[in-house]
Amino acid sequence: MIQLDRSLRRLGESVPTPKEEKCIQMWRNIVTELHLRRLNPSKKRIWPWVLLSSVLLFIIFNSALREAFVFWLIKGSPSTTQIMNKYVHSVDTPTVGYLSNIVVRNGDLNLYLQTTGSKLWVENLKTGQIWHSQADTEGISINGSRSIDFTNNLFYLSYVNHAQQITRMVLPYEDLTSINYYPFDSGIGVQYNFADHMFSIRINWHLGPDYIDIEIPNNSIISVGDLQIEKIALIPFLAAFAPIDDLGRIGTDGTSLDVTTALQTLNKYEGDYFAMVLNGADQAVFRFPDDSGVTKKAYVEFDLSAKGQGIPEKGFKVRYYLPFDQSFSPNRSDLFQKEVFIYRPKLNLDQMLLPMVNTYRLI
Amino acid sequence: MKSKEEYVKSLVIKCLAGEQEAFRNIFDCYFQELYRTAFVLMKSPIDADDVVQEAFIRVFNSLDKYDLNRPFRPWIQRILLNACKDFWKRKRWNLVPIEQLYDLIDNGAVCPEYECLKDEELKKLAAAMQKLSPKHRMVVVLHFLNGMRINEVAEVVDAPSGTVKSRLHHALKALRRHLTAMDSSYLEFWLGREEELTV
Predict the structure, then answer these.
(1) Which of A151, A290, A291, B146 has a CA between 20 and 30 Å from the CA of residue B23?
(2) pLDDT at residue number A134
């Protein structure tokens, strides 16, 4: 095995290395070929039109097979939404009129994807609450209730740079160069690509019967250039359209953190942002799914309950999973007590109706 | 210190942003490796040139479909293999067998850059390689000649790691068989290592 391995490697090494001139010539050929192909697109691109025309004629003359052919056309069309068709189902009577696609339905919750942007929507069927992920620049009107302009409320990013300084950045939506969607059985992953900023990040949304898990998968953050992101705190926050007075109280299981205390600490770092002040007993609970320490995962959980305004007190939970590296301290409880912060950006709360904007950071 | 993988991904992002120079850098990073793979797979340096050129064109046209969460190296190798397969389909294997190519080299009829393949052992090994099925040859080239890990090879050939290991195992056995048949002197050499020919 060793000898054969060595001989095979020798064979690989014996392949002649192309000379510099050959590399240059090859590069020129590639550039020229690319240029020519752009000028003279392949004839293959013509035949789908011929096919389409033929199919259209066939459909006209054979209405009985219309549905089958439309299905075949949709399934065969080489569009970027092809992968979505497998998972996204249309809703007969969408409660959220603004949306067209539902990704997952589970229990009392619906998760929608707004395919014209990167926004995810969560509908609580029991309460009628509608929540959405990051706001964009559109003015939105839902069921004629409110029209909210989310100008300047964009993709928030908080990270620790190479000098161990906390840095906050807002990436405008118009800088988004592309968005990739990765549907899976219980939800969808959305990858934001900011090519100009040389930054890319993916967020997974898992929908449970009464909770939403928001997770940044390992190795899903790609950053180059000046960002030098050591650790990241992303804010896939949820904003509500239904009026929410405050966060609901969470049970006593898990390790509790006095949010107000943590926020005071945070203010030392983040002078430009004020802390989220929750009502007296409100707490965020930090849970550790695997006490053995094998999973090395923990999350911050919030209960998005509705109180007042005649809305039944039946909310759902949102769990923000923290991306961890292997250096995660075994003393997780203490770590969280000291180093995870919750805050919200300085916004006009009355106008924006943002009941919570959560972020977390692990130093 | 950025790894090559991270560096290439940054190039991909730049390339998607419209920087042609970034694609040139990607070309520089992978040209040698792809050429080596194509050379062994295609049996002819001229065909290797064609396939590598086609592969880079496909890479450029498919960059927007590349998933940044996935490793780049298997992705680009897979594109190359697909280009090779398409080439084979077109040519239907009507190529000069590599043994004959070496004869031509010996006669001085072909470019002198293959002088290095005059090594007897390598000639036999190369000839034995050409007798492998395409599937077996691919995994051997990727794993042994390119030094790719099993899981990377699995990603390139779109098969489970276990399948790749199995193919490698059978490929090595077949190689041994071919070598043994070619030269009785190899019989003695390889029989003693029968138990080692497991992956």
Answers:
(1) B146
(2) 52
Within 8 A of A2 by CB-CB distance, chain B residues are: 196
| CB contact at 8 A, A276 and A263 | yes
Question: Which residues lie below 8 Å from residue A291, measured CB to CB, with a gap of 6+?
Answer: none
Burial class of residue A47, CB neighbours in 10 A (0-12, 13-18, 19+): exposed
Here the tokens at position A30 are 């590639």
Residue B196 has its nearest CB partner, among A2, A178, A200, at A2
Q: What is the DSSP string of A253-282?
A: -SEEE-HHHHHHHHHHH-TTSPPP---TT-
| Closest C-alpha among A275, A245, A41, A293 to residue B61 | A41
Cβ under 8 Å to B: A residues 176-195? 177-178, 180, 191, 193, 195
Residue in B2, B39, B64 nearest the CB of A15: B39
What is the distance between the alpha carbons of residues A317 and A218, in angstroms, rounded to a whole number?
A: 23
Encode pLDDT of A20-74 as tens digits. 878 888 888 887 777 777 666 555 555 677 778 887 787 776 655 545 544 444 3
Whether A339 and A361 have beta carbons less than 8 Å apart is answered as: yes
Contact present, A190 and A170 (Cβ < 8 Å): no
Is the Cβ–Cβ distance between A247 and A282 less than 8 Å?
Answer: yes
Whether residue A225 lies within 8 A of chain B, CB to CB, comes out as: yes
Q: Do B53 and A17 touch (CB under 8 A)?
A: no
How close B105 comes to chain A (CA, Å)?
A: 13
The residues, any chain, with a CB within 8 Å of residue A175's CB and separated by 6 or more, are A194, A196, A197
Q: Hey, are the CB atoms on B122 and A202 less than 8 Å from each other? A: no
For residue B7, pLDDT beyond 60: yes
Which residue among B13, B176, B193 places its CB closest to the CB of A224?
B13
Of A2, A7, A17, the CB nearest to B121: A7
How confident is the model over A307-362, as pLDDT tens digits? Answer: 434 444 556 666 656 544 433 333 333 333 333 333 333 333 332 222 333 332 22
Nearest Cβ partner for A18 among B35, B69, B119? B35
Six-digit token pair at A278? 């929750």
**Chain B residues whose beta carbon lies within 8 Å of the beta carbon of residue A37:** 57
- Shortest distance between the Cα of A28 and any Cα of chain B, in A, equals 10
As for the ipTM of the complex, it is 0.71
Q: Which residue of A has its CA nearest to B146?
A: A12
Q: Closest residue of B to A193, CA-based?
A: B13
Q: What is each CA distance from B92 to A40, A70, B79, B96, B135, in whole angstroms?
A: 27, 37, 19, 12, 16
Q: What is the pLDDT of residue A41?
A: 59
Q: Locate A107 and state its tokens.
A: 């229990």
Write the CA distances from B162 to A206, B20, B196, B198, integer angstroms. Answer: 31, 39, 18, 13
